[in-house]
Structure prediction request, 83 residues.
Amino acid sequence: MEKHGMMTCRETSTLVAESRLGDLPVTTRVRVWLHLAMCRYCRRFYRQIRAIDDGVRAALETMRGEMPADLAATVTARLSRKP
Prediction:
């Protein structure tokens, strides 16, 4: 990642997709937010990632206590498969 200047869309979207913004140094977070403020495409991607995250959290909260015991293992196995 560049040390100075505007972050690229690739750098920004990677950090957004990894949901690591809270773990980043303050200077990097500022660079991400500046990029999001200026780039409508990355801003849209950020909102989509947030909506997916919110939906998954809501679904998990709704299903808490109703999940089959092997659900986590099944989901992990499916996500680990290469397309």
